[in-house]
Amino acid sequence: MNFLSNPIVARLLWVLPALLLGIAVYLLWAGAEQREAATVGVPVEAEVLGIETRERAEITIGQVVLRYVPPGETEAIERNIELPLTLLKSIEARELETVTIRAVPGQDQIVLDPYKRSQWILSFSFAAMALIGALGLSVMVRGWNRFLSEHGDPSEAHLA
């Protein structure tokens, strides 16, 4: 018997689309918070402490390190904000020392003012991709479970 042909394992495969669905729901929530921060957030000046990019063949990521005082707070905090490389290159090319961010008091989400629309749209796009992945994986897991219940283990078909 093949590992994936085990009926228990085949049923447990439903965890994968459920995980992608959970990721999609979380990203929708985060995107809604980012949209709220972009529209009603308080503008705050943030000091750009540095930009870190890693451009390798297998992965390209980047983040900007910001120091700012959140609205309603008294102490400054430092945050690493992951952004697409094109936005980071834009900040780097302009050699910005400060950037305006928008934040809602009491929330963790912030958006960079020059890219506020791009950030929440990107979150919604990632949520849509996770949802499409969840739907596609659900179809495949359902098909595999149906096949196993109707035809049995395919690795044992040549033995009959």
Proportion of helical residues: 40-55%
Average per-residue pLDDT, rounded, comes to: 88
Q: Rounded to an integer, what's the Rg over CA atoms?
A: 22 Å
Roughly how many Å apart are the termini? 14 Å
What is the number of E strands?
5
Indicate the overall shape.
Answer: elongated
Q: Give the assembly state of these chains.
A: single chain
SSE order, one letter for each helix or strand: HHEEEHEEH
Largest sheet: 5 strands, antiparallel
| Unreliable stretches | none
Q: Number of DSSP helices?
A: 4
SSE class:
alpha+beta
Beta-sheet strand percentage? 15-25%
Return the domain count. 1
Strand order of the largest sheet: 3-2-1-4-5
What do you see in this structure?
This protein is α+β, with helices and mostly antiparallel strands and 160 residues long. It has one domain. 48% of the residues lie in helices and 24% in strands. It is built from four helices and five strands, in the order ααβββαββα. The chain has helices at residues 7-12, 15-40, 85-93, 116-151, and strands spanning 42-55, 60-68, 77-82, 98-103, 110-112. A five-stranded antiparallel sheet has the order 3-2-1-4-5. The longest helix has 36 residues, at 116-151. It starts with 6 loop residues before the first helix and ends in a 9-residue tail after the last helix.
Blueprint of the fold:
Elements: H1 7-12, H2 15-40, E1 42-55, E2 60-68, E3 77-82, H3 85-93, E4 98-103, E5 110-112, H4 116-151
Helix pairs in contact: 2-4
Short account of what is shown:
The protein is α+β, with helices and mostly antiparallel strands and 160 residues long. It is built from 4 helices and 5 strands. 48% of the residues lie in helices and 24% in strands.
